[in-house]
């Protein structure tokens, strides 16, 4: 009897694990499916481009660098125009903020198209995937995907999620308008239900609005004896419209099969019945699968295009990145970041239910601080020390310009920082998926659904993107200063700029209420020092608000303008620097 009691006590934890494990692994599985689709899309698209490279006119297009860049720019302009045509109107009154991000994506696609068809790219794909930082990024994403896909047996309703992927709206909000023109009955005394002849898939309908300019009746058959319910009356006028929302769990006003929808026009003139459908995936979280796949495809295409179109910059960048990632400091920062993120996951913040917000805030801030430390340190060791040690003179004695040297160093530093961000972000996302379960168990609350963990992950990704942009801004400053200042002075200056840059918005706002001299000084600082507060969304994180994509576009615009400006400053500082 005691043996059976012991067996039961051992099985109890397994039963508890079986309850929370699907909630934990489903968000990770969703992103893993996105990565898998991204791999498939990348392989298919670039496989087609590799086949096209056998055509002499296309495969040799990039043999001449100037010709390759020219045709890439032309293709990029075409792609940019298409993207702007579809997506700028969706931004509403702030749609102009989308121009620069969409043009950037268009240029990635343009260069990816031309250089993807290059015969050298076809022969060098294995080298591209196995060199520099790409194996580290692919290895991290691959491990994340293996964990997610390996947990497929425990995922909640995986087929429902997969079936929702085709319904994801890449363009628009899913609004579709169908119009049915219904003739009046030939015999006024005999109701005649005519087919609506419209197409819809009610599995993906999230909202529906039906309007008519005549009095009509909606039914699910053309014969009264075949009605499964009484016909629904619809009177003319917008105030009499029939509305339906899937989230209300009400009975739909029209049948699920479009062929069964019939309408009786009670009046003597033709009726115009307008159906406004808003189609969304039945599982909304399936949208993250598509966007993850698109992000992976664009990232790999961007790496390939940069390598093939700017080989000297890429060679300098890879050399810099590999050198910095081989330093003991890099491994130390990586270990500190992983340990801190795991600690934040179980650390009791005592916030009465808001621990996960502090976890997100602490985790992304820790990743950003470590990335900035790496960027400033790398700028000192790879730029300042090479100039002082005359290593830069050896590099520039080869066919490498000073512009390519600075751009290659900055790109290499940012690639090393990107690997740090990707690894620590992957750990943070896994912790965020488990954190709602951990908090519920610690506070003896009901176990949350897996959608809660997925939402925490998806709302964290834009924050990581903003903080990486801020790290890029500080990295640009560090590289520019490294052409003239030693490492310690660079650290102190970048730290001061970081502090002042994050206090810039409150400083300018307070300066307006003071004297003209104080206001002038505040505006002068705002011109000289970057407004890093544009990338700081701590208030939104603490309030639990999601970051809209239009805000990311605005921050990207500011980053591009600032990086171009700081690169010009770096060239002015480095152009007349005596390297001998």
From TrEMBL:
Domain of life: Bacteria
Membrane spanning residue stretches: 21-49, 69-88, 97-118, 133-155, 288-309, 329-350, 362-380, 413-437, 457-481, 487-505, 517-537, 549-574
Coiled-coil ranges per UniProt: none
Keyword Ribosomal protein among UniProt keywords: no
Keywords: Membrane, Transmembrane, Transmembrane helix
One Pfam family named in its UniProt record: ABC2_membrane_2
Record protein name field: ABC transporter permease
């Amino acid at each position: 009897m005691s043996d059976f009691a012991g067996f039961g006590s051992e099985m109890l934890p397994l039963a508890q694990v079986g309850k929370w494990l699907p909630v934990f692994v489903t968000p990770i599985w969703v992103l893993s499916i996105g990565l898998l689709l991204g791999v498939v899309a990348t392989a298919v698209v670039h496989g087609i481009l590799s086949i096209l490279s056998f055509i002499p006119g296309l495969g040799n297009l990039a043999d001449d660098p100037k010709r390759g860049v020219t045709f890439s720019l032309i293709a990029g302009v075409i792609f940019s125009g298409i993207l702007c045509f579809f997506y700028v109107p969706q931004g509403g009154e702030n749609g102009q903020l989308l121009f620069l991000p969409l043009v950037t994506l268009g240029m990635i696609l343009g260069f990816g198209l031309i250089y993807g068809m290059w015969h050298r790219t076809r022969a060098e794909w294995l080298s591209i995937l196995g060199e520099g930082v790409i194996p580290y990024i692919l290895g991290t994403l691959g491990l994340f995907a293996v964990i997610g896909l390996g947990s497929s047996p425990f995922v909640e309703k995986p087929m429902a999620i997969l079936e929702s992927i085709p319904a994801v709206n890449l363009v628009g909000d899913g609004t579709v308008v169908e119009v049915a023109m219904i003739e009046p009955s030939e015999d006024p005394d005999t109701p005649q239900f005519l087919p609506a002849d419209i197409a819809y898939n009610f599995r993906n309908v999230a909202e529906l609005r039906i309007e008519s300019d005549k009095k009509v009746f909606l039914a699910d058959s053309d014969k009264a004896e075949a009605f499964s319910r009484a016909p629904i009356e619809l009177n003319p006028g917008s105030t009499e419209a029939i509305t339906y929302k899937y989230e209300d769990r009400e009975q739909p006003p029209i049948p699920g099969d479009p062929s069964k929808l019939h309408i009786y026009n009670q009046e003597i003139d033709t009726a115009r019945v307008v159906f406004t459908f808003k189609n969304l995936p039945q599982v909304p979280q399936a949208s993250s699968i598509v966007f993850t796949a698109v992000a992976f495809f664009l990232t790999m295409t961007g790496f390939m295009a940069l390598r093939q179109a700017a080989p000297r910059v890429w060679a300098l960048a890879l050399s810099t990145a590999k050198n910095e990632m081989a330093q003991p400091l890099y491994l130390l920062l990586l270990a500190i970041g992983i340990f801190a993120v795991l600690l934040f996951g179980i650390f009791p913040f005592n916030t009465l239910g808001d621990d996960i917000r502090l976890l997100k805030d602490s985790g992304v801030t820790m990743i950003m601080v470590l990335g900035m430390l790496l960027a400033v340190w790398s700028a000192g060791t790879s730029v300042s020390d090479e100039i002082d040690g005359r290593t830069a003179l050896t590099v520039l004695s080869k066919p490498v310009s000073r512009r390519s040297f600075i751009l290659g160093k900055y790109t290499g530093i940012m690639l090393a920082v990107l690997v740090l961000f990707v690894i620590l972000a992957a750990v943070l996302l896994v912790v965020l998926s488990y954190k709602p379960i951990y908090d519920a168990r610690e506070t003896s609350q009901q176990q949350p659904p897996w959608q809660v963990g997925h939402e925490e992950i998806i709302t964290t990704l834009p924050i990581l993107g903003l903080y990486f942009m801020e790290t890029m801004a500080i990295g640009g400053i560090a590289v520019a200063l490294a052409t003239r200042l030693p490492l310690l002075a660079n650290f102190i200056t970048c730290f001061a700029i970081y502090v002042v840059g994050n206090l810039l918005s409150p400083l300018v706002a307070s300066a307006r209420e003071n004297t003209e001299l104080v206001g002038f000084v505040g505006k002068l600082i705002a011109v000289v020092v970057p407004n890093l507060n544009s990338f700081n969304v701590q208030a939104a994180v603490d309030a639990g608000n999601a970051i809209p994509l239009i805000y990311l576009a605005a921050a990207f615009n500011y980053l591009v303008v600032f990086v171009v400006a700081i690169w010009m400053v770096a060239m002015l500082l480095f152009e007349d620097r005596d390297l001998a």
